[in-house]
Design a protein that fits this description.
Strand content: 5-15%
Order of helices and strands: EEHHHEEE
Helix content: 40-55%
Number of helices: 3
Shape: rod-shaped
Length: 134
Amino acid sequence: MEPRMYVCEYCKKEYLPKRRRVQKFCSDSCRVRKHQLKSSKISKELSLKENIVQKEKTKIEAVSFAGVGNAALGNLAVKTLSTLFTKEENKPATKGDILKLTKLIRYQEIRNLSKDLLGKKPFFDSFLCIVVYK
């Protein structure tokens, strides 16, 4: 045993160590109380931080006219820039474009058939699958 006296970290009383030379507490009850105090401080700090984070989230999630305006302007800017910098062949097709294409590919000229009596050329109608003279 060591003759030197130690000071308890919880109750600050002087004591003579019983078990080992570097003993921090005078008794098990002081050791447990110190641990409980430390745990409660940590849990209080964590809950305080969680409350702060939750309050910040509610501020961010709040809808305001300024936020809606900023979102609308950002969306408009992105759409404008994408239409300016997208090549014509990479732009998506519209219904009007598809109708023009169907008019172009519906009738295919048949070159190995002769003209009819009125001088009209033969065409193959790809939708009706018949020969038409135009």
